[in-house]
Design goal:
113 residues; alpha+beta; Arc Repressor Mutant, subunit A; 3-stranded antiparallel sheet; elongated; WH-like_DNA-bd_sf; Winged helix-turn-helix transcriptional regulator; DNA binding; DNA-binding
Length: 113
């Protein structure tokens, strides 16, 4: 079985793939719409999409003759978060501090409403 974190970081290594992920953050796009944003050939973009799909960063679904891609943000967030927690334990502490602040911020906004 492949190492998921390694697959994700390998997928993130190429700027075109990072741009594809950014383009998908606002919602689903057809393969042709994604390819149209780049000067690379369709087959090259298709290979990039395949790497992202293999890493679990995008999902695809068919709609008639179109292939639609969407971001799987949870996989990216969990893998990068786990890695950062391992190499930078301060991230765990910062995450806990943010969790504690979030309810206070929500309470303050409710009080002013």
């Amino acid at each position: 079985m492949a190492d998921t974190a390694s697959d994700i970081f390998a997928a993130l290594a190429h700027p075109t793939r990072r741009q594809i992920l950014q383009d998908l953050k606002d919602g689903e796009l057809a393969a042709g719409e994604i390819a149209a944003k780049f000067s690379a050939s369709g087959p090259t973009i298709s290979r990039h999409l395949g790497v992202l799909r293999q890493a679990g960063l995008v999902s695809e679904r068919r709609d008639a003759n179109r292939i639609l891609y969407s971001l799987v943000a949870d996989n990216l967030a969990l893998s990068v978060g786990d890695f950062l927690s391992t190499v930078c334990p301060e991230q765990i502490v910062l995450r806990e501090v943010r969790k504690k602040r979030a309810p206070k911020a929500a309470s303050a906004s409710e009080a002013t409403a």
